[in-house]
Amino acid sequence: MRAVSPSFLAVLLPALLLAGCSESAPVPAPLTDRKALEAVAERPGVDRAKLARAVDALFSKEGIGETRAVIVMHGGEVAAERYGAGYGPDTRFIGWSASKTVMGVLIGMLVADGRLRLDDSPPIPRWQRAGDPRGEITLRQLLQMRSGLRHQEKADPVYNSAEVRMMFLDGRDDMAGWAEAQPLASEPGRTFQYSTPTGVILADIAERVLAPNSNAAERQRTMNEFIRARLAVPLGMRSLTAEYDRAGTMMGGSMIWANARDWARFGEFLRHKGSVRGSQLVPRAWIEFMTTASPRAADYGGMTWLNRKSGGEREVLFPEQGPADAFAAVGHLGQYVLVSPSQQLVIVRLGNTPDSDRKPLVSALADIVALYPQR
Which CATH number is 191's domain given? Predict the structure, then answer.
C-alpha cells in the first residue's frame, strides 16, 4: 500500500472534521473586526470568543442601527467594553427615556426621607383646587405610568405627541406646567399610558419639595446639588449631567447624560438593590417596587421596564428568552441599561437605532444575555 504523505493529511483531516460536524454545531463565523477580541476581558465569565462575537454583532450586524458604546459587566467586573468610531470612555451619551429610571431612584430617596408618600397626592397646587379630579392622582400612579393624564406618546401626526409638544412646542418654556395642566383622559390608576411628561412632573415634584417657592435658578441649583450629593458622588458617576427648562425644572423624562461607564455604574447600583460598597443609598424595598409589575402593565414597574410579556403586542425586552428577573432602563433610539440579577449581569448599549430596527437590536442583546448562566 502506498504511504500517505503528511501534506495530504494536512489537507484531508480538516475536511473530515468539518464533514463530521452536525448541522446543530456550525462553524462559528469569523470576527469581522480584529479589535473585537481585544474589547473582551481575559476572563469574562463565559467563552471569550463567543462574547467577542456577540458584542461585535452589535457593531457590525446590518439592520440594528449604529452602536456607539457597549459595556458588559459580570459579577461587578468589566467583561467587555467597546466604542464606535468617534466615541470613547469620556463621551457623554444622552439616556433619553433611560433618564426616567434615574428619576425614579431620586423620587425613592425623597420617599425614604419622609418628604413624599407613595399613596398621597403630590404637592402640585393646581391639582389641589377644590373639585379638580387630578387631585386623586397619587405618586405611585405617576411612577407606574397610570396617572390618567392625557399624555399621548408618539401620536400621529408627531406634532400632536405629548412629548413633542412639551419639549419643543407650546410647553417648552415651562414643561412641568404644560404636563400638569393636561386634563384626565381616564380615571387615575385605571390605564397604563407611557409618558415622557410624567418624568418632568416627577422632577417638578422633587424640586417643589427641595426648593419650595424658589425661582428657576434656585430650583436648578438645588436639584443639581441633591443629585450630586445623593447619587453622582456616592456612585462615582462624575459625568452625570441633567438638562433643565427655562422654569428651572429638570427634564427628568429624557435629558440625563452620562458616559457609558457611569451608565454601567448605575446598572450595578440597581443590581445591588440600591447599595454601593455596603452603603444603602435608597432602600432595597424601593428598588423592589421599581422592578415589580404595576397593576396595569405586566412589563412595567416603577419607571423601569421588566422582562415580562405585556399581555398585548408590546415587547420592549425579550420575555421568551431571558430570565424573568431581568429589567432595564430603556431610551429612545436604542439606549439600554439592562440588568439581570440572577446572572450578575449588566449590559449597557448606547447608540442610534430607529424604532423599525429595534427588534433585531433587542435580539442581539438577548444573545449576549443567553451566554451567561443563571445562578
Answer: 3.40.710.10
Rounded Cα distance, 18 and 31, in Å = 19
Q: Give the separation between CA 18 and CA 16, rounded to whole angstroms.
A: 5
Write out the residue range of the structural domain in which residue 231 sits: 95-253
Residue listed under C-alpha cell 427634564: 251
Asked whether the predicted pLDDT for residue 31 surpasses 60, the reply is: no
Helix and strand numbers, DSSP H then E, in the chain = 12, 11
Is there a domain that residue 302 lies in?
A: no
Best CA proximity match to 196, nearest among 138, 155, 248, 241: 155
DSSP 320: T
> What mean pLDDT do residues 346-372 have?
97
Provide mean pLDDT across the span 26-32: 50
What three-state secondary structure class fits 52?
A: helix
User: What integer pLDDT is reported at residue 30 of this predicted model?
Assistant: 54
The answer as to whether 217 is a domain residue is yes
Does residue 194 sit within a domain? yes
State how many domains the chain has. Answer: 1
What pLDDT is attached to residue 8? 33
Three-state SS at 73: strand
Specify the residue for cell string 462559528: 28
Per-state percent for the chain, helix, strand, coil, to nearest 5: 40, 15, 45
**Pairing label, strands 275-276, 279-280:** antiparallel
End-to-end CA distance of the chain: 57
Q: What is the pLDDT of residues 64-111, one digit of tens each?
A: 999 999 999 999 999 999 999 999 999 999 999 999 999 999 999 999
Q: The whole model's pTM is what?
A: 0.90
The position carrying cell 404595576 is 294
C-alpha cell at 206: 422633587
Q: Is residue 15 part of a domain?
A: no
